[in-house]
Write a structure and sequence with these properties.
The complex is a heterodimer.
Chain A: E1 3-7, H1 10-14, H2 17-27, E2 32-36, E3 48-52, E4 55-59, H3 67-72, H4 78-81, E5 94-97, H5 102-105, H6 123-128, H7 133-141, H8 143-153, H9 165-174, E6 181-186, H10 195-202, H11 204-218, E7 222-227, H12 232-247, E8 268-273, H13 283-290, E9 314-318, H14 319-331, H15 333-337, E10 340-341, E11 344-345, E12 347-354, E13 360-365, H16 370-377, E14 387-392, E15 398-400, H17 411-416, E16 425-430, H18 435-449, H19 455-472, H20 477-494, H21 498-502, H22 504-513
Parallel strand pairs in A: 1-2, 6-7, 6-9, 7-8, 12-16
Antiparallel strand pairs in A: 1-3, 3-4, 4-5, 10-11, 12-13, 14-15, 14-16
Helix pairs in contact in A: 7-11, 7-14, 8-9, 8-11, 10-11, 10-12, 11-14, 18-19, 18-22, 19-20, 20-22
Chain B: H1 2-9, H2 18-30, H3 38-45, H4 49-58, E1 70-75, H5 78-81, H6 85-96, E2 109-114, E3 126-128, E4 131-133, H7 138-152
Parallel strand pairs in B: 1-2
Antiparallel strand pairs in B: 1-3, 3-4
Helix pairs in contact in B: 3-4, 6-7
The chains are: A alpha/beta, B alpha+beta.
Chain lengths: 524, 153
């Protein structure tokens, strides 16, 4: 039987993949169509893959209207499948063997190893392709050694703060309590980021396995995935994956009991939906929200690791942090530590977004340069105009000019240029961008999404937006620029959390690297 | 009415974050959260009405009035800005003669801002009644939602 792969991923779906799958089925009812996650090459979506003797041959971007010509070209004919005709005919959408596309081939896919390849809801696929090995080893090792492996890996939180995971795990493990929690922060609100979404849609059992290992590691028996409501596909896939995980005893009163590997440990997992608040990506705000309240930030200390959900010790981690855990257990913390550079260990799924020719997900060890990502693999802008700025790390990340593109993707190297890697999103802008408008937007976004608890953030964002508007209007530009810098200092020093504390980052970096956008003779 | 609301939210009373789950259920059932239900919800969760209102007003998803027959959300975040979302949004709103966050007079279309749909490598992006859309063309999209406005009027 001819096997075709069509992604169910949000990007593919938004570009018509469901219609393509229907049209293919209609064209030949004997096609076996497997819905997968995405390979992460957005410019090729919807990417249809045909299983052949030589490997999977891709066609993209395919619309339902292309199906007729694909059929006419014999893209899934028996000779194409036997690999007889080179690249299976001369259809213009053919991209050849998908594994050989340089963008894909040059990655080091550890976390996304299965994403786009397997059926995300097929547990057997997951197990046959390396899944569950980390958990098996974790059960044999036990809590103390699980935490030791995570510590040895040097893994740092992928949500943005880059805090050493091992320290957090040990803190939760060492806390005495009748109940502990694992909370997965899947409130991926940063513009330019979609790695969490992709892995949840494309390999949800990986996240579940990571959370179960975390539970065994720190002694927690209950977990929550806090998912943003803007991700309907991830919601559907996770809901089904959790149900299947219970059926296979990956979750439940005795994790892997029926497999004879009996952990003797319980782990329950629930999906919890957010309701459209960016601030709930901040961990204490997320916990408030998970308790059914307004997502207002809590003062720290106490740390969530000691007093988190319902005041109990809680391990809060980003999706990608938890997804890194199964491989760390399977291959060892020392293996993981050897990937990457310096104190930035392991791989990072970088996300190339905005005005970029070859946008998508690019997983690589830390240390790769911005230039490689943006210009070599990303191919520069989609509009074909020169790249003028990139914003790295979401709405609270710095705007950087091309003369800083040699900077390696490394937490410390980015800190040294007044920037951060955040969740690994890179948004590209061409030379039509107005950095004064972007700086104003940074304040406007903060005003829109501030939880309102602390004054520097709540009031500062509004005042900041007003002052930049005055600068744009050409009013007292020199004095108003001093005022903005002063305000940024107050927000940075005086805010409770990163929302107010880091809104100055995009503003100050825009002022520093693109001062000409704030100084026009006649105003703007 | 009170009884229907009580039945709808009953499964969430003892759950973690029950209030948010209950509000999601109400919103899914009626399309918005009717002010008349607030005392019922507050009573069921043993909270003050102010606490319930505070939660409703905090989250962008919870509407206090019904949306139009078609609910359009256009991404306003940086990635989409980089590929023309400001122009896309302006064109769409001009075609409908409304502002962001408003509903057309006929009640056909509501256009809201959304901050990121995770389609950042294929912007500009939007969502129409829960269906994701990417790589949008400003003119085509404006014409499409104008057609929705006429059809739904």
């Amino acid at each position: 039987m001819t096997k075709l792969y069509v992604p169910l991923d949000s990007v593919a779906a938004a570009l018509g993949a469901d219609g393509v799958a229907d049209a293919l089925k209609k064209a030949d009812s004997t096609f076996e169509i497997v819905r997968t996650g995405s390979r992460g090459m957005a410019w090729l979506e919807p990417l249809v893959e045909v299983e052949t003797a030589r490997g999977r041959v891709g066609y993209g971007p395919v619309t339902p209207g292309d199906v007729e010509s694909l059929m006419a070209a014999g893209f899934a004919s028996s000779s194409a499948i036997m690999g007889a005709s080179a690249d299976s005919g001369q259809h213009p959408l053919c991209v050849g063997l998908v594994d050989d596309i340089p963008y894909f081939k040059n990655q080091d896919r550890q976390i996304f190893a299965r994403c786009g390849i397997t059926d995300p809801l097929c547990f057997e696929d997951y197990r046959n392709q390396g899944g569950m090995e980390g958990l098996g080893k974790a059960i044999r090792l036990g809590g103390v050694e699980i935490c030791a492996e995570v510590m040895a890996s040097g893994l740092r939180g992928r949500g943005g703060a880059a805090f050493p995971a091992g320290i957090k795990w040990n803190t939760v493990a060492g806390a005495e309590a009748d109940q502990k929690y694992i909370v997965c922060n899947a409130d991926e609100g940063d513009s330019g980021t979609f790695a969490d979404r992709m892995i949840m849609e494309g390999d949800p059992f990986l996240l579940i396995e990571g959370m179960v290992i975390a539970g065994l590691g720190v002694g927690a028996t209950k977990g929550f995935i806090y998912l943003r409501s803007e991700y309907p596909v991830a919601r559907r896939i996770l809901t089904q994956a959790i149900a299947r995980a219970y059926e296979r005893a990956l979750l439940g009163p005795d994790v892997l009991g029926p497999d004879g590997l009996s952990s003797g440990k319980a782990f329950d997992l629930e999906l919890f939906m957010g309701a459209g608040a960016y601030i709930c990506g901040e961990e204490t705000s997320l916990l408030e929200s998970l308790e059914g309240k307004r997502g207002q930030v809590r003062a720290k200390p106490p740390l969530p690791a000691l007093e988190g959900l319902h005041g109990k010790p809680t391990l809060v981690h980003n999706v990608i942090s938890l997804c890194a855990v199964p491989a760390i257990l399977q291959k060892g913390g020392a293996w993981y530590k050897d990937l990457g550079m310096g104190r930035s260990t392991g791989t990072m799924p970088f996300q190339l977004a905005g005005n970029i020719k070859y946008g998508g997900l690019f997983e690589a060890p830390f240390g790769i340069s911005l230039d490689d990502l943006v210009n070599i693999y990303g191919g520069g802008t989609r509009t074909g105009r020169p790249v003028r700025a990139v914003q790295v790390g979401g709405p609270l990340g710095a705007y950087l000019p091309p003369n800083l593109f040699e900077t390696p993707m490394d937490y410390e190297a980015f800190q040294n240029i007044g920037a951060g890697i955040g969740h690994g999103g890179i948004v590209v802008f061409d030379d039509t961008v107005d950095l004064a408008a972007q700086a104003k937007y940074a304040f406007d976004f903060c005003a829109e999404e501030s939880c309102g608890k602390c004054t520097p953030c709540r009031i500062g964002a509004v005042r900041g937006s007003e002052v930049i508007a005055n600068i744009i209007a050409g009013e007292n530009q020199a004095e108003n620029t001093v005022l903005v810098k002063d305000l940024c200092e107050v927000m940075e020093d005086g805010s409770l959390c990163a929302m107010g504390g880091m809104t100055p980052v995009p503003v100050m970096s825009a002022l520093e690297h693109f001062p000409e956008d704030f100084k026009t003779a006649e105003g703007k | 009415m009170t009884e229907a609301v009580e039945t709808l939210i009953a499964p969430f009373l003892e759950k973690d974050g029950g209030l948010l789950r209950a509000l999601h259920a109400l919103q899914a059932s009626e399309g918005y959260i009717d002010a008349a239900h607030i005392p019922v919800v507050a009573g069921a969760f043993n909270l003050s009405k102010a606490e319930v209102k505070g939660v409703i007003s905090f989250y962008a998803d919870f509407r206090r009035a019904p949306a139009g027959r078609y609910h359009v959300k256009i991404c306003q975040a940086e990635s989409c800005q980089a590929v023309g979302s400001r122009r896309l949004t302006e064109k769409a709103l001009t075609a409908l003669g409304i502002k962001l966050g408003d509903t057309t007079v006929s009640g056909a279309v509501t256009v809201d801002a959304v901050y990121c749909l995770g389609l950042c490598a294929a912007g500009p992006a939007a969502m129409i009644d829960g269906t994701l859309r990417a790589r949008l063309d400003a003119d085509g999209f404006a014409a499409e939602i104008q057609a929705l406005a006429e059809e739904g009027a």
